[in-house]
Amino acid sequence: MFPSDVASAQAFSIFSSKANAVYYNPAALAQDGRGELTGAILHGEADLGYKDATGAGPSSRRLSDEPSQQLILGLKADASDLLTTGHPIYLALMLGSEKYGREMLAFESQTTRDGQYLTYGRNPLFLNVGAATPIWRGIDFGASINITLNNKADLDTQLETSGETRYETLEASAKPTYRPIVGFNMNWGETFCPDGCWMDNLQTAVAFRGYSKTETSIDATPNVPQLINTLPIRVSDVIQGYQPDIYSVGIRYDFGRVRLGFTGEAQMWSDLEEEFAGDTVKDQANLQFKDTFVPRVGLEFDFNRSFMFTTGVAWEESPLESNSSQDVNYLDADKLVIGMGLSATFQNPPLLAWPLTVDLAYQYQQLDDRRFDINTTQAGDPIPDSVVTDGEVNVFSGSVTLKF
User: Fold this and answer.
1) 3-state secondary structure of 201
2) Closest by CA position to 333, among listed 123, 119, 122
3) Per-residue pLDDT band at 121 (split at 50, 70, 90)
4) Paired strand residues for 400
5) Which of 27, 245, 250, 291 is the least crowded, having the fewest Cβ atoms under 10 Å away?
6) What is the DSSP letter of 34?
7) Which one, of 2, 1, 27, lies nearest residue 14 by Cα?
8) What ranges do the domains of the chain cover?
9) Which of 3, 10, 6, 11 is nearest to 39 (CA)?
């Protein structure tokens, strides 16, 4: 996410004409014909845990407090000169990597008796490429592809009874997967009253993002001489990241110095049940999911030509229906999302021939209380039979954009 997405709680993301449009709504690229280069950093601090719902005293445990960082690069360009017709066409790409590029293929999947949170997974590496063009007065169309990697590793080895290995053969590969994204933008004034009317300031957008998942499969075949010829160990289709089909509709009205926006998202999480059924780490959990609707409301206010304030709020419903999942013990809850940010544009920066924009944003996410039953077959220290979710997330983001 760019700072503008963090600040507005993604309420204005479907209307963004920056390079991040290739992820939210590629049609919005056609709203601004200027090219741009953006570098962004996102830092998230999650303090997630639970409270004992059954004990006599108030006891709690923290499950996740490790920060997450992501580096994002975006590029947008006017490619109209590539066509002999001169018809406007705009291209953009966006690249993101976890831990500032140091963990591009990292993943983790586990069972646990202590509980783990569902929706705060990682997307260690992704690439989005897309294009947009006007198709009729006031109506733009865009399409893009989100590219992620599925990993596979094969290991053959001879294992001694002492635990040492020899004659190892290791093969690892990464296969790209593709997620389609399409969108439409419409300015009602340009479409229905090109001579000018109140609808000039009314804009709507619709977008569809196809589902994507990031998987890892590991096949290990150790051979113990004079004891076991082959001992196949297979960990298949481990889901490390998943995004459902998302249908988005947005409306924005420009009052001059103030802009209001509303976006509604229908997220098809119920399809994730079949995906987890093939996950050898978590297939025993019999997880159940439901489709959700996420409302987002945002506001932009121009202090002057150079400074703009953005804020937004969203309510994100949890897609997890199961209140108990054997050995996996997933936890999740509805959450309130509040964001705010400041954008500063320097029209004549030193040494640069084009405007420079600096964006800073902060987002706060508060988890709602929800009760879960801990279900484990593993031995260990006593743990609560029932817990209540508890936690918050703080997100900081900053970017520098050069327009040309």
Assistant:
1) helix
2) 119
3) very low
4) 39, 358
5) 291
6) -
7) 27
8) 3-148+265-403
9) 3
